[in-house]
Amino acid sequence: MNSREQACWLTLVFESKLSTRTINDILVIWCKQLERTIEDFFAADAQEWRTSCHLKTPLASGIDREREKGDT
């Protein structure tokens, strides 16, 4: 696992403050069903997260904020 991938996992699991159920739903849909990586998830925009993973706007916005923190 490279450092970028590790950062993505840490952001999703710890920094996003999402429930375990929501994280599991994202992983099942994004990684298993869509066969995309966690890095692909963070490269996508909030609209794609809402559409693909059925995330409500506040959840997607929260992940987006955490992603932006990591980029600075």
Q: Tell me the β content.
A: under 5%
Mean pLDDT: 91
Helix content: over 70%
Rg measurement, Å:
11 Å
Structural class by helix and strand composition: mainly alpha
> Count of helical segments?
5
Number of strands: 0
Shape: globular
SSE order? HHHHH
Task: Give the terminus-to-terminus CA distance.
Answer: 22 Å
Biggest beta-sheet profile: none
Number of domains: 1
Poorly predicted sequence stretches spanning 5 or more consecutive residues: none
Explain what the structure shows.
The protein is mainly α. The protein has one domain. The chain is 78% helix and 0% strand. It has helices spanning 3-15, 20-33, 38-43, 46-53, 57-71. α1 (3-15) packs across α5 and α4 (46-53) packs across α5 (57-71). The mean pLDDT is 91.
Question: Helices, strands, pairings?
Answer:
Elements lengths: L2 H13 L4 H14 L4 H6 L2 H8 L3 H15 L1
Helix pairs in contact: 1-5, 4-5
Q: Characteristics of this structure?
A:
about 70 residues; mainly alpha; globular
Give the gist of this structure.
The chain has one domain (3-71). The protein has 5 helices and no strands. Helices cover 78% and strands 0% of the residues.
